[in-house]
Design goal:
six-stranded mixed β-sheet, alpha/beta, 44% helix, D-Maltodextrin-Binding Protein, domain 2, 11 helices, 321 residues
């Protein structure tokens, strides 16, 4: 080959290779829709550290809590679609809020690209040890015998525990009293203190208290029992498959972000989730179901999840403005 022509070919190949590796070319920011210190924040920081090592760029976590995840979501929806700003949030943003609020400052379907669902979290229905019922069947019989005498805590109207509680009430034909608290961290302590009799809580939150006998469990969400608490039956096997108790953590980019960024974030994040040590110690041991879905799988899941949550919101009568 002509030396000059060969030089042009090599230069073109180098340019194509450089173009293929252009993302990320600057620091990446993960906006977390919750305060520091919670499970989703801890996971965001662990993943950010590993992605920074893989990408050779700083990956910083920014907490933007408030307004039931709307503040963080709106900030990301309006950020530059260059792949440098991600949203890490829960099902509240995409499956619940569109049915809870009459108007949002963004369109969850139009303004975001689902990148990957990281984990699923199944919640347990837990109660005060003195409650004179030791199974879901006994609890329902007690509630029917004494309507309105049993209350349950949530962390606000339209929150996951509220929707789960109202769905259980509807399907079991019982009357439970909803007591909203100001935060997720207050519900289990309220049960332990006897301020309320019941709440729905994730395994990571409730496990230490269950093992210490400070609370007891009646049922757990999901298609199968948790390997951490195999003695706790699922709502489905007890005849109440409509009682959805799950939450999920996921990563999103603003609409219009480069396909390269979407693909690489998914690929490199899934690699982290699939690492045996990280998977076991940081996820499974804390009660998380590891997912790592593709963008297409995640989008399809959100559509179905949103339909189910719409029904739960209607039954609960919850509204937020």
């Amino acid at each position: 080959m002509n030396p000059i022509r060969l030089a042009f070919v090599l230069l073109a190949c180098f340019a194509l290779s450089a173009h293929a590796q252009t993302w990320p070319s600057k620091p990446v920011r993960i906006v977390v829709a919750y305060p520091p210190g919670g499970g989703i924040d801890v996971m965001a920081r662990q993943i950010a550290e590993k992605l920074a090592q893989s990408w050779g760029q700083p990956v910083v976590v920014e907490n933007r809590p408030g307004a039931n995840t709307i503040i963080a979501s709106d900030a990301v929806a309006k950020s530059a679609p260059d792949g440098s700003t991600l949203l890490m949030t829960t099902d509240a943003t995409f499956s619940i809020n569109p049915h809870l609020y009459s108007k949002l400052p963004f369109d969850t379907q139009r303004d975001f690209i689902p990148v990957t669902m990281l984990v699923l979290l199944q919640q347990m229905l837990v109660g005060h040890p003195a409650l004179p019922a030791n199974s879901l069947d006994e609890l329902i019989k007690l509630a029917k015998a004494k309507p309105g005498s049993i209350n349950y805590a949530s962390y606000g109207s339209g929150s996951q525990p509220h929707l789960s509680g109202e769905m259980l009430k509807s399907k079991a034909g019982i009357d439970l009293v909803h007591v909203p608290y100001k935060g997720i961290s207050l519900a289990v302590p309220a049960v332990m203190a006897g301020e309320v009799q019941l709440t729905f809580a994730g395994i990571a939150t409730s496990a230490p208290q269950l093992k210490a006998g400070r609370i007891k469990a009646f049922a757990i969400g999901g298609p199968q029992r948790s390997p951490l608490f195999p003695q706790v039956p699922t709502f489905t096997e007890l005849g109440y498959p409509e009682v959805e108790t799950h939450a999920w953590f996921g990563l999103f980019l603003p609409a219009g972000s480069p396909e390269e960024a979407v693909a690489r974030i998914h690929r490199d994040t899934k690699k982290i989730l699939d690492d045996p040590e990280f998977r076991q110690k940081q996820l499974i041991a804390r009660g998380y179901d590891v997912v790592g879905s593709s963008p297409g799988e995640f989008a399809a899941y959100i559509r179905k999840d949103s339909e189910n949550r719409a029904r739960a919101v209607r039954i609960s009568g919850a509204k937020a403005e």
